[in-house]
User: Fold this.
Amino acid sequence: MQSTKRAQASEHVPTQSPVAPGPLNHGRGSSRTDATPDLEERTSDEVTVVDPAMVKRAVSAAALGNAMEWFDFGVYSYIAVTLGHVFFPSGNPTAQLLSTFGAFAAAFLVRPIGGMVFGPLGDRIGRQKVLAITMIMMAAGTFAIGLIPSYATIGVGAPVLLLVARLVQGFSTGGEYGGASTFIAEYAPDKKRGFLGSWLEFGTLAGYVGGAGLVTLMTALLSTHDLNSWGWRIPFLIAGPMGIIGLYLRMRLEETPAFARLEKEARTKEKTRREAEKRIGVREMIFGQWRAMLLCIGLVLVFNVTDYMLLSYMPSYLTSELKYDETHGLLVVLGVMVVMMGVQPFAGKLADRFGRRPVIAAGCAGFLVLSVPALLLIRQGSLAAIALGMAALGLLLVCFTATMPSTLPALFPTKVRYGSLSIGFNISVSLFGGTTPLVVTALIGATGNKMMPAYYMMAAAVIGGIAVWLMSESARKPLPGSPPAVETEAEALEIVRASRRAEAGSAA
Assistant:
């Protein structure tokens, strides 16, 4: 691990691990005579020059690990109807679905607790170590679901064990998104943070596609009896070997540059100051960052309500509320997710070029205006209408999935980033995102109005729009508490020179 070096235009541009090593390549015909000695005494001009190969490996490992976690977590949604028959036998299909989604929502209730544990831990011992722990716990919880006997075999113990396994999943997921997005954001150069961050949600979608594809295949190939008796276990048992692969990928990663810099600075300070920094508690992470925390909750609300509505709830909505064929419903969702994966990196580039705020605002406006027409298309019932309505919602959702991994980490400074982001993210997901299937199912049951999903998404869009209006633009800017991050030493030198010219101008 290379240490952070001081910005010295007269010698070389400062770097921070992981970096592109070696002295500055000034290029043919360049001159070093314009450097000034006072730069040697300044630390404010530090610039991180990232190693592109290291960044690529970090993004790939984080996205692949996220895909594996969300395959585990998401497959529960796709097989919810079958799980209702296995663990919650009842003569009322709506009651079965409510019970299944109740266990689904229970996992989200412990996510803030997971965030409060893993977030501060990630700020204290490092992002990479905590992400490895969350991978192990998620794989174990999912694998355990595949081993639980049915209600017919052990009675009420079956749903109790299912709930325990779901709580393990939820607890581990509490440290996943905040850590993975922080990891990528702290590795990425400023001008590409949106594009590189978009690959995190690409991994999430890939996990969903894998889960939906496997459930669809089983539904098509297996009889209802076989699916209810043993077939439903297959997606959960796959979590074991997948978890081992994900753990291997994450253990090979180095710590992020921003955390490595913070850790080095802590080692150089007096003991009492260092101990005080280590004791940064949940109170400071929440109330010390209250404005950023509220913005985070608002942004995550619109992101996750629409995400879980489209990717988790809609397959069950098509089957239970519209009596649509289960296999065809899953195939439509699968196709929408594939389209979203194809658009995702381009939307990330747009967020780098035009800013995070315009892209997120476009998504909020789109859900506010198009939720009702899209759901009316879906309710029309034909395959083409359902596909068109779902695709419209999916493309709007990309406005959030492509920007949030770079937007949310930029709300918080390095020393509390993992903790504050994990706590804010999971509070919002637990209260609004993860409860979406349960709340919407209950609202439809209470009112008989099958347009409730559209109204729910519109309300979320209003709240998200307010958060976007209040937030600051973070595109192409350094993360709070971190120096500028660039891809080449030439870019770093230009930043140092520009800073020097600006200071000279202000002094004049």
